[in-house]
Amino acid sequence: MTISRDVKEAIRLLSLGEVVALPTETVYGLAADGTSDEAVAKIYALKNRPCFNPLILHCHDLDQVKTLARVPYEAKQLAEQFWPGPLTLILERRPENPLSLLATAGLNTVAVRVPAHPIMQEVLQALEFPLAAPSANPSTQLSPTTAEHVDAAFKDRLGPALILQGGACEIGLESTILDLTESIPMILRPGAITREMFEICLGTAVLDFTSEVSKKPKAPGQLLKHYAPRLPLRLNVTEPQKGEIFLGFGEIAFEGRGLNLSPRGDLVEAAAHLFAYLHALDNPNLFQGIAVAPIPRHGLGLAINDRLERAAGSQ
Ligand code: TXA
Ligand code: MG
């Protein structure tokens, strides 16, 4: 991985579906085309997370956010005061939107943010798509606030990928996440913008989920909503039953009976297809269930199995 000041090269790589580490005012992010399942799968592969957390979609302004999500009045008020800046809003996805299903982990909500860092803004304005970007750290490490942190955290894992030099992050703490999809706005992650600031801006009460959680701890994995298909899922299947449609992997496939996540057995390709294929097969008018082939439990296979198990367990 190389630290570089070449903004044009970063834009070129992102346009080609590659991953680039970019500065924001909060922390550095590992960014890729948020409309491409393949590009987003590369982020998850680099993060080495054992699960697919949905990602934040970074936009250059509120108008671009409107192409992805329904924007209620409260969101407009908050955007006017806090964007560009360290605020992420959870909104409902628009029915018609260009987003990668993998970026939002199959949810019908989407996390959106308009970052303020001038280099990030320059990159976003040059691109025709929003950037999906989690913090640029491997999943067990701290979030990086300098280009050198990113370099050290990934050592050679990012290969020839680029880290765009943007100096030290001004805020150094991830954005505040505010969920606007429930009846009362709720803080899901604390950050530089506080509950008091929200309440003054909106003139209404805002809940702080994070302080509720600290009183009554739960496993973080249980807090997050996850994708739940309408049809029952049966996992680790090598022989589908009558009425089941098959989601194959590698050589375990039944020609003409479903879809194959990756005929060549590539886990990054399988991750890219996971949510899009589940959505495509999830049709109770045509099938009684979805049978899924065994997926190897290493690399991105861990995250794929985690999501499949949650989806299967939610029925
Ligand atoms: O400051 C930041 O927000 C940085 C910079 C790079 O923008 N990004 C960042 O991303 O912290 P990440 O992926 O490390 O954290 C995103 C958080 C995750 O905890 C994820 O679960 C949550 O946002 N999230 C994303 N989409 C969500 C959704 N639809 N509903 C609830 N939570 C969501
Ligand atoms: Mg993070």
Question: What are the key terms here?
Answer:
single chain; 11 helices; 15 strands; binds threonylcarbamoyladenylate; alpha/beta; 315 residues; eleven-stranded mixed sheet; binds magnesium ion; four-stranded parallel sheet
Instruction: Sketch the topology as an H/E string, one letter per element.
Output: EHEEHEHHEEHEHEEEHEHHEEEHEH
Query: What is the helical fraction, as a range of percent?
Result: 25-40%
Beta fraction: 15-25%
Radius of gyration (CA) equals 20 Å
Largest sheet: 11 strands, mixed
Q: Are any ligands bound, and if so which?
A: threonylcarbamoyladenylate, magnesium ion
Q: What is the structural class?
A: alpha/beta
**Can you tell me the residue ranges where pLDDT is under 50 for at least 5 consecutive residues?**
217-222
Strand order of the largest sheet: 1-8-2-3-7-4-6-5-9-10-11
What is the global morphology? globular
- Spatial gap, N to C terminus: 43 Å
Mean pLDDT, nearest integer?
A: 90
The number of helical runs is 11
List how many beta strands DSSP finds. Answer: 15
- Quaternary form: single chain
What does the model show?
The protein is of the alpha/beta class and 315 residues long. It has 11 helices and 15 strands. The chain has an 11-stranded mixed beta sheet with strand order 1-8-2-3-7-4-6-5-9-10-11, with helices on both faces. Strands 12-15-13-14 form a 4-stranded parallel beta sheet. It is globular, with a radius of gyration of 20 Å. The termini are far apart. The site of threonylcarbamoyladenylate has 25 residues, from β5 and β6. Threonylcarbamoyladenylate is lined by residues 24, 26-27, 29, 53-56, 88, 90, 104, 107, 109-111, 113, 115, 133-135, 174-175, 177, 188, 224.
